[in-house]
Amino acid sequence: MSSAPPYAKELRIAQLAVQRAAILTKSVFNTTSKGTLSKSDHSPVTVGDFGAQALIISALKYNFAQDEIVAEEEAEELRTNTDLRGKIWGYVKDTKLDGEGEKELGGAIESAESMLDIIDLGASQGGSKGRIWAIDPIDGTKGFLRGGQYAVCLALIVDGKVKVGVLGCPNLPVDDSARIENSMGKDQQDSEGKGVLISAVEGQGATGRALSASTGGKDDGRSISMKPLEDITKASFCESVEAAHSNQSLQAEIAKKLGIVAESVRMDSQAKYASIARGAGDIYLRLQVKRGYEEKIWDHAAGVVIVREAGGLVTDSEGKELDFGRGRTLRGNSGIVAAPKGVHGRILDVVKEVSAGVKL
Ligand SMILES: Nc1ncnc2c1ncn2[C@@H]1O[C@H](COP(=O)(O)O)[C@@H](OP(=O)(O)O)[C@H]1O
Ligand SMILES: [Mg+2]
User: Fold this and answer.
1) pLDDT tens per residue, range 9-31
2) How far, in Å, CA of 123 to CA of 36, rounded?
3) Domain 232-355 falls in which CATH fold?
4) Which residues, in sequence order, are CB contacts of 3 under 8 Å at separation 6+?
5) Residues bordering ligand 2, an ion, CB closer than 5 Å
6) Which of these, 133, 195, 279, 352, could form a disulfide with 211 (CB 3.0-4.6 Å)?
7) If you measure from the C-alpha of residue 341 to the centroid of ligand 2, how many angstroms do you get, rounded to a whole number?
8) Fold adopted by 8-224
């Protein structure tokens, strides 16, 4: 009898949990009233973020009760804002997977009150020991609000290393070969419905499948890989839409020095990692705008293991591996460079050269 590969159950549950949460976010995406709040760091949060986080944590607690969880949102505001709480609960109680999948996730959350407690189970401080799930229920919330790209992100970190990563990208085309474009979103949805689920387990490669696939069949999806980049001047490089999130002028200078002819493709969320991992784009640059911003682990964990398993390398701008074992943020991180293995070193040299003369 052959035994299941390592992390088979974790992968399966993570895929189903992301798939279910993505159904909720899609319903919210298609409404005009998304229940937006502004957080203390001035970033937006919506009904979709809270609802997706509740559904994912509930699935994780049902299957892996002992594991810690680092998730982006907290329920504090919802304990007094009953309107918003009711709105979120309206989506959460009605969002289900068809067939077997729902059972595997433990079914529905009991009440609006327990939903708040579940959201707050994501308050772990992280660290370098044990099993920790990192959740970004809606990454790219600004893109989500603009009608652009966003991603539902889940990763398992064990002793500081990312072992499993899953990205649900409801607004990316299912087709891996469709090259990335600026701000793909609602305006470009096709009739068969968009959405792709990209996953990876350390040492086992990366896969992709339609986000809408039936959950009954154990569909492992198709294997994906980065495009071999023989001629770097033909590369398509992607970066954030938000100018405050990465240094677009520095990135333009780097691209120019590398001889890259095309303009950057701007896209919100970890859909950038998903896109380069399946060869729809080639390079992702995220250099700091200002010193001091600490990247959150949930913004990168899933994307990093997916890109690695698809044949890429992800480092900071000094060439060091990202360290997911230091808490809720990648302490002291100096930007991110993700590219196919064969060209990563060359890109890094240019990043270092161009950054050297810049005072942030
Ligand atoms: N000043 C900053 N520099 C870098 N990233 C930032 C930032 N302010 C916010 N972010 C992060 O950027 C994420 C979006 O990334 P991108 O620009 O690639 O779409 C946000 O995730 P959320 O949307 O989950 O809040 C947020 O965590
Ligand atoms: Mg995020």
Assistant:
1) 999 999 999 999 999 999 999 98
2) 21
3) D-Maltodextrin-Binding Protein; domain 2 (3.40.190)
4) none
5) 136, 139, 299
6) 195
7) 25
8) Fructose-1,6-Bisphosphatase; Chain A, domain 1 (3.30.540)
